[in-house]
Amino acid sequence: xxxxxxxxxxxxxxxxxxxxxxxxxxxxxxxxxxxxxxxxxxxxxxxxxxxxxxxxxxxxxxxxxxxxxxxxxxxxxxxxxxxxxxxxxxxxxxxxxxxxxxxxxxxxxxxxxxxxxxxxxxxxxxxxxxxxxxxxxxxxxxxxxxxxxxxxxxxxxxxxxxxxxxxxxxxxxxxxxxxxxxxxxxxxxxxxxxxxxxxxxxxxxxxxxxxxxxxxxxxxxxxxxxxxxxxxxxxxxxxxxxxxxxxxxxxxxxxxxxxxxxxxxxxxxxxxxxxxxxxxxxxxxxxxxxxxxxxxxxxxxxxxxxxxxxxxxxxxxxxxxxxxxxxxxxxxxxxxxxxxxxxxxxxxxxxxx
Length: 353
Fold this sequence. Notes:
Layout: H1 8-11, H2 14-28, E1 31-36, H3 50-57, H4 59-79, E2 83-86, E3 92-100, E4 103-115, H5 132-140, H6 142-146, E5 150-151, H7 153-195, H8 205-231, H9 245-253, H10 261-267, H11 272-283, H12 287-305, H13 310-316, H14 322-333, H15 337-352
Parallel strand pairs: 4-5
Antiparallel strand pairs: 1-4, 2-3, 3-4
Protein backbone atom coordinates (compact mmCIF):
# COMPACT_ATOMS: atom_id res chain seq x y z
CA UNK A 1 0.00 0.00 0.00
CA UNK A 2 1.15 3.52 -0.74
CA UNK A 3 0.84 6.46 1.56
CA UNK A 4 -1.86 7.99 -0.67
CA UNK A 5 -4.21 5.18 0.37
CA UNK A 6 -3.49 6.03 3.99
CA UNK A 7 -4.44 9.68 3.66
CA UNK A 8 -6.33 10.55 6.85
CA UNK A 9 -8.68 12.76 4.83
CA UNK A 10 -9.79 9.69 2.86
CA UNK A 11 -10.07 7.40 5.87
CA UNK A 12 -12.02 9.29 8.52
CA UNK A 13 -14.57 12.10 8.71
CA UNK A 14 -12.31 14.88 9.96
CA UNK A 15 -15.23 17.06 11.04
CA UNK A 16 -16.50 14.35 13.42
CA UNK A 17 -12.91 13.54 14.41
CA UNK A 18 -12.32 17.14 15.44
CA UNK A 19 -15.39 17.08 17.69
CA UNK A 20 -14.01 13.98 19.37
CA UNK A 21 -10.60 15.65 19.60
CA UNK A 22 -12.18 18.66 21.34
CA UNK A 23 -13.85 16.36 23.86
CA UNK A 24 -10.63 14.45 24.50
CA UNK A 25 -8.73 17.69 25.03
CA UNK A 26 -11.34 18.90 27.50
CA UNK A 27 -11.30 15.64 29.49
CA UNK A 28 -7.52 15.13 29.48
CA UNK A 29 -6.64 18.83 30.02
CA UNK A 30 -4.25 18.51 27.09
CA UNK A 31 -4.04 20.56 23.92
CA UNK A 32 -4.40 18.19 20.93
CA UNK A 33 -3.84 18.45 17.19
CA UNK A 34 -3.79 15.75 14.48
CA UNK A 35 -1.19 15.71 11.70
CA UNK A 36 -0.73 13.51 8.64
CA UNK A 37 2.37 11.38 7.91
CA UNK A 38 4.13 14.47 6.51
CA UNK A 39 3.57 16.37 9.74
CA UNK A 40 0.97 18.67 8.14
CA UNK A 41 -1.99 19.45 10.46
CA UNK A 42 -5.30 17.95 9.31
CA UNK A 43 -7.26 19.44 12.25
CA UNK A 44 -7.19 22.69 14.19
CA UNK A 45 -5.67 22.82 17.65
CA UNK A 46 -8.08 21.76 20.37
CA UNK A 47 -7.67 24.01 23.42
CA UNK A 48 -4.20 25.31 22.65
CA UNK A 49 -2.89 26.92 25.85
CA UNK A 50 -2.52 30.77 25.84
CA UNK A 51 1.22 30.48 26.53
CA UNK A 52 1.78 28.18 23.56
CA UNK A 53 -0.51 30.25 21.33
CA UNK A 54 1.65 33.29 21.98
CA UNK A 55 4.92 31.39 21.48
CA UNK A 56 3.76 29.81 18.21
CA UNK A 57 2.78 33.25 16.88
CA UNK A 58 6.30 34.58 17.56
CA UNK A 59 8.41 34.23 14.42
CA UNK A 60 11.68 33.64 16.29
CA UNK A 61 10.23 31.05 18.70
CA UNK A 62 7.73 29.17 16.52
CA UNK A 63 10.52 27.49 14.51
CA UNK A 64 11.64 25.72 17.68
CA UNK A 65 8.06 24.52 18.26
CA UNK A 66 8.01 23.08 14.73
CA UNK A 67 11.32 21.30 15.33
CA UNK A 68 9.94 19.80 18.53
CA UNK A 69 6.84 18.54 16.70
CA UNK A 70 8.89 17.03 13.87
CA UNK A 71 11.47 15.31 16.06
CA UNK A 72 8.87 14.10 18.53
CA UNK A 73 6.83 12.54 15.73
CA UNK A 74 9.86 10.78 14.24
CA UNK A 75 10.86 9.39 17.62
CA UNK A 76 7.32 8.09 18.21
CA UNK A 77 7.38 6.33 14.84
CA UNK A 78 10.77 4.80 15.61
CA UNK A 79 9.54 3.50 18.97
CA UNK A 80 6.10 2.54 17.60
CA UNK A 81 4.51 3.95 20.76
CA UNK A 82 3.75 7.34 22.38
CA UNK A 83 6.83 9.46 23.00
CA UNK A 84 6.76 11.87 25.96
CA UNK A 85 9.31 14.69 25.92
CA UNK A 86 10.05 18.28 26.91
CA UNK A 87 9.85 21.11 24.41
CA UNK A 88 12.32 24.02 24.25
CA UNK A 89 10.43 25.68 27.14
CA UNK A 90 10.52 22.47 29.22
CA UNK A 91 6.78 22.00 28.69
CA UNK A 92 5.60 18.39 28.42
CA UNK A 93 4.43 17.24 24.99
CA UNK A 94 3.48 13.83 23.58
CA UNK A 95 3.75 12.46 20.04
CA UNK A 96 1.28 9.59 19.53
CA UNK A 97 1.76 7.71 16.22
CA UNK A 98 -1.13 6.33 14.19
CA UNK A 99 0.24 3.13 12.67
CA UNK A 100 -1.93 0.75 10.64
CA UNK A 101 -0.61 -2.41 9.00
CA UNK A 102 2.93 -1.31 9.93
CA UNK A 103 2.44 1.94 8.00
CA UNK A 104 2.78 5.36 9.67
CA UNK A 105 -0.17 7.47 8.54
CA UNK A 106 -0.14 10.35 11.00
CA UNK A 107 0.13 11.37 14.63
CA UNK A 108 -1.71 12.95 17.51
CA UNK A 109 0.32 15.76 19.05
CA UNK A 110 -0.82 16.39 22.62
CA UNK A 111 0.44 18.05 25.77
CA UNK A 112 1.19 21.67 26.66
CA UNK A 113 1.34 20.92 30.38
CA UNK A 114 3.75 20.68 33.30
CA UNK A 115 4.66 17.70 35.44
CA UNK A 116 3.88 17.54 39.13
CA UNK A 117 6.90 15.27 39.57
CA UNK A 118 10.17 14.94 37.69
CA UNK A 119 10.56 11.18 37.93
CA UNK A 120 11.68 9.84 35.55
CA UNK A 121 13.60 12.73 33.94
CA UNK A 122 12.47 13.43 30.37
CA UNK A 123 14.53 14.47 27.37
CA UNK A 124 14.39 18.04 26.16
CA UNK A 125 14.16 17.21 22.47
CA UNK A 126 15.17 20.68 21.19
CA UNK A 127 17.37 23.17 23.02
CA UNK A 128 17.11 26.89 22.39
CA UNK A 129 20.08 29.23 22.90
CA UNK A 130 19.60 31.76 25.65
CA UNK A 131 19.03 35.36 24.62
CA UNK A 132 17.95 38.51 26.40
CA UNK A 133 15.07 39.02 23.94
CA UNK A 134 13.67 35.53 24.49
CA UNK A 135 14.02 35.85 28.26
CA UNK A 136 12.04 39.08 28.13
CA UNK A 137 9.32 37.39 26.07
CA UNK A 138 9.11 34.58 28.61
CA UNK A 139 8.85 37.05 31.49
CA UNK A 140 5.97 38.79 29.70
CA UNK A 141 4.17 35.44 29.45
CA UNK A 142 5.08 34.15 32.90
CA UNK A 143 1.49 34.35 34.15
CA UNK A 144 0.29 32.23 31.22
CA UNK A 145 3.15 29.80 31.81
CA UNK A 146 2.21 29.36 35.46
CA UNK A 147 -1.42 28.66 34.46
CA UNK A 148 -0.46 25.61 32.36
CA UNK A 149 -2.21 22.39 33.52
CA UNK A 150 -0.20 20.23 35.93
CA UNK A 151 -0.41 16.43 35.84
CA UNK A 152 1.57 13.58 37.35
CA UNK A 153 3.79 11.47 35.11
CA UNK A 154 1.51 8.49 35.72
CA UNK A 155 -1.51 10.48 34.54
CA UNK A 156 0.38 11.57 31.41
CA UNK A 157 1.44 8.03 30.48
CA UNK A 158 -2.07 6.68 31.08
CA UNK A 159 -3.61 9.34 28.84
CA UNK A 160 -0.94 8.78 26.17
CA UNK A 161 -1.65 5.04 26.06
CA UNK A 162 -5.39 5.66 25.95
CA UNK A 163 -5.06 8.07 23.00
CA UNK A 164 -2.70 5.67 21.21
CA UNK A 165 -5.09 2.70 21.40
CA UNK A 166 -8.23 4.77 20.79
CA UNK A 167 -6.94 6.60 17.72
CA UNK A 168 -5.42 3.51 16.11
CA UNK A 169 -8.62 1.54 16.75
CA UNK A 170 -10.85 4.22 15.22
CA UNK A 171 -8.67 4.57 12.12
CA UNK A 172 -8.34 0.79 11.68
CA UNK A 173 -12.12 0.34 11.96
CA UNK A 174 -12.60 3.11 9.39
CA UNK A 175 -10.24 1.34 6.98
CA UNK A 176 -12.11 -1.94 7.45
CA UNK A 177 -15.43 -0.17 6.90
CA UNK A 178 -14.14 1.43 3.69
CA UNK A 179 -12.90 -1.97 2.50
CA UNK A 180 -16.34 -3.46 3.11
CA UNK A 181 -18.04 -0.64 1.17
CA UNK A 182 -15.61 -1.07 -1.74
CA UNK A 183 -16.31 -4.82 -1.83
CA UNK A 184 -20.06 -4.17 -1.76
CA UNK A 185 -19.79 -1.71 -4.67
CA UNK A 186 -17.71 -4.26 -6.55
CA UNK A 187 -20.37 -6.90 -6.03
CA UNK A 188 -23.08 -4.51 -7.25
CA UNK A 189 -21.08 -3.73 -10.39
CA UNK A 190 -20.69 -7.45 -11.09
CA UNK A 191 -24.43 -7.94 -10.61
CA UNK A 192 -25.17 -5.04 -12.96
CA UNK A 193 -22.90 -6.57 -15.60
CA UNK A 194 -24.80 -9.85 -15.34
CA UNK A 195 -28.12 -8.05 -15.58
CA UNK A 196 -27.13 -6.44 -18.88
CA UNK A 197 -26.64 -9.89 -20.46
CA UNK A 198 -29.21 -12.65 -21.02
CA UNK A 199 -29.10 -15.24 -18.25
CA UNK A 200 -29.97 -18.89 -18.18
CA UNK A 201 -32.76 -20.25 -16.04
CA UNK A 202 -30.17 -21.74 -13.68
CA UNK A 203 -28.49 -18.37 -13.09
CA UNK A 204 -31.16 -16.28 -11.37
CA UNK A 205 -30.75 -12.90 -9.69
CA UNK A 206 -31.09 -14.48 -6.26
CA UNK A 207 -28.35 -17.02 -7.12
CA UNK A 208 -26.00 -14.23 -8.22
CA UNK A 209 -26.80 -12.14 -5.15
CA UNK A 210 -26.08 -15.09 -2.87
CA UNK A 211 -22.76 -15.82 -4.59
CA UNK A 212 -21.79 -12.15 -4.44
CA UNK A 213 -22.54 -12.00 -0.70
CA UNK A 214 -20.45 -15.13 -0.19
CA UNK A 215 -17.60 -13.59 -2.18
CA UNK A 216 -17.77 -10.39 -0.10
CA UNK A 217 -17.70 -12.37 3.15
CA UNK A 218 -14.74 -14.47 2.02
CA UNK A 219 -12.78 -11.47 0.72
CA UNK A 220 -13.48 -9.42 3.86
CA UNK A 221 -12.52 -12.31 6.13
CA UNK A 222 -9.31 -12.83 4.16
CA UNK A 223 -8.47 -9.10 4.30
CA UNK A 224 -9.02 -8.85 8.05
CA UNK A 225 -7.00 -12.01 8.75
CA UNK A 226 -4.19 -10.80 6.48
CA UNK A 227 -4.05 -7.44 8.28
CA UNK A 228 -4.01 -9.19 11.66
CA UNK A 229 -1.34 -11.75 10.67
CA UNK A 230 1.01 -8.96 9.58
CA UNK A 231 0.89 -7.53 13.10
CA UNK A 232 2.17 -10.86 14.38
CA UNK A 233 5.30 -10.82 12.21
CA UNK A 234 6.96 -8.20 14.40
CA UNK A 235 9.73 -9.59 16.58
CA UNK A 236 8.40 -7.43 19.41
CA UNK A 237 4.86 -8.83 19.33
CA UNK A 238 3.14 -8.88 22.71
CA UNK A 239 0.02 -10.98 23.19
CA UNK A 240 -3.00 -9.31 24.79
CA UNK A 241 -3.43 -12.55 26.72
CA UNK A 242 -0.40 -13.04 28.96
CA UNK A 243 -1.03 -16.78 29.15
CA UNK A 244 -0.13 -17.10 25.47
CA UNK A 245 3.06 -15.03 25.52
CA UNK A 246 5.44 -17.98 26.22
CA UNK A 247 4.03 -19.75 23.14
CA UNK A 248 4.57 -16.74 20.89
CA UNK A 249 8.05 -16.14 22.32
CA UNK A 250 8.94 -19.76 21.53
CA UNK A 251 7.53 -19.61 17.99
CA UNK A 252 9.46 -16.43 17.21
CA UNK A 253 12.69 -17.66 18.77
CA UNK A 254 12.62 -21.05 17.03
CA UNK A 255 11.28 -20.27 13.57
CA UNK A 256 12.94 -23.44 12.22
CA UNK A 257 10.89 -25.73 14.46
CA UNK A 258 7.42 -27.13 13.94
CA UNK A 259 6.05 -27.19 17.45
CA UNK A 260 2.66 -28.78 18.06
CA UNK A 261 -0.30 -27.17 19.80
CA UNK A 262 0.07 -29.62 22.69
CA UNK A 263 3.72 -28.71 23.20
CA UNK A 264 2.93 -24.99 23.27
CA UNK A 265 0.00 -25.54 25.62
CA UNK A 266 2.34 -27.40 27.98
CA UNK A 267 4.80 -24.51 27.73
CA UNK A 268 1.99 -22.14 28.81
CA UNK A 269 0.92 -24.50 31.63
CA UNK A 270 -2.64 -24.85 30.33
CA UNK A 271 -4.62 -27.63 28.68
CA UNK A 272 -4.53 -28.01 24.86
CA UNK A 273 -8.30 -27.39 24.59
CA UNK A 274 -8.09 -24.14 26.58
CA UNK A 275 -4.97 -23.09 24.66
CA UNK A 276 -6.86 -23.65 21.40
CA UNK A 277 -9.84 -21.52 22.52
CA UNK A 278 -7.84 -18.52 23.68
CA UNK A 279 -5.47 -18.81 20.69
CA UNK A 280 -8.38 -18.49 18.27
CA UNK A 281 -9.67 -15.50 20.24
CA UNK A 282 -6.24 -13.85 20.09
CA UNK A 283 -5.39 -14.51 16.43
CA UNK A 284 -8.74 -15.12 14.71
CA UNK A 285 -7.58 -18.49 13.37
CA UNK A 286 -7.04 -22.08 14.40
CA UNK A 287 -3.45 -22.84 15.36
CA UNK A 288 -3.17 -25.33 12.47
CA UNK A 289 -3.84 -22.49 9.99
CA UNK A 290 -2.14 -19.65 11.82
CA UNK A 291 1.25 -21.37 12.31
CA UNK A 292 1.96 -22.09 8.62
CA UNK A 293 0.52 -18.72 7.58
CA UNK A 294 2.92 -16.98 9.96
CA UNK A 295 5.83 -18.92 8.47
CA UNK A 296 4.75 -17.85 4.99
CA UNK A 297 4.75 -14.21 6.14
CA UNK A 298 8.31 -14.68 7.38
CA UNK A 299 9.16 -16.35 4.07
CA UNK A 300 7.82 -13.33 2.18
CA UNK A 301 10.07 -11.06 4.23
CA UNK A 302 13.09 -13.22 3.39
CA UNK A 303 12.15 -13.30 -0.29
CA UNK A 304 11.91 -9.50 -0.31
CA UNK A 305 15.02 -8.67 1.73
CA UNK A 306 17.55 -11.46 1.07
CA UNK A 307 19.20 -13.38 -1.75
CA UNK A 308 18.64 -16.73 -0.07
CA UNK A 309 17.51 -19.55 -2.33
CA UNK A 310 14.11 -21.19 -2.04
CA UNK A 311 15.77 -24.26 -0.50
CA UNK A 312 17.61 -22.14 2.09
CA UNK A 313 14.44 -20.29 3.11
CA UNK A 314 12.57 -23.59 3.31
CA UNK A 315 15.24 -25.03 5.65
CA UNK A 316 15.44 -21.86 7.73
CA UNK A 317 11.70 -21.97 8.44
CA UNK A 318 11.60 -25.69 9.22
CA UNK A 319 9.74 -27.07 6.20
CA UNK A 320 10.40 -30.77 5.60
CA UNK A 321 11.43 -30.08 1.99
CA UNK A 322 11.32 -27.30 -0.60
CA UNK A 323 8.43 -28.96 -2.43
CA UNK A 324 6.19 -28.80 0.63
CA UNK A 325 7.30 -25.20 1.26
CA UNK A 326 6.33 -24.21 -2.29
CA UNK A 327 2.98 -26.01 -1.96
CA UNK A 328 2.23 -24.27 1.35
CA UNK A 329 3.31 -20.87 0.00
CA UNK A 330 1.04 -21.29 -3.01
CA UNK A 331 -1.89 -22.30 -0.78
CA UNK A 332 -1.75 -18.94 1.01
CA UNK A 333 -0.44 -16.63 -1.75
CA UNK A 334 -1.82 -18.38 -4.91
CA UNK A 335 1.63 -18.21 -6.51
CA UNK A 336 5.04 -19.78 -5.99
CA UNK A 337 7.87 -18.20 -3.94
CA UNK A 338 9.93 -17.63 -7.10
CA UNK A 339 7.10 -15.78 -8.84
CA UNK A 340 6.44 -13.75 -5.67
CA UNK A 341 10.10 -12.67 -5.51
CA UNK A 342 10.15 -11.73 -9.21
CA UNK A 343 6.99 -9.65 -8.89
CA UNK A 344 8.32 -7.89 -5.81
CA UNK A 345 11.62 -7.06 -7.52
CA UNK A 346 9.77 -5.80 -10.61
CA UNK A 347 7.66 -3.48 -8.42
CA UNK A 348 10.80 -2.18 -6.75
CA UNK A 349 12.42 -1.54 -10.14
CA UNK A 350 9.33 0.30 -11.39
CA UNK A 351 9.24 2.47 -8.26
CA UNK A 352 12.82 3.58 -8.92
CA UNK A 353 11.95 4.75 -12.43
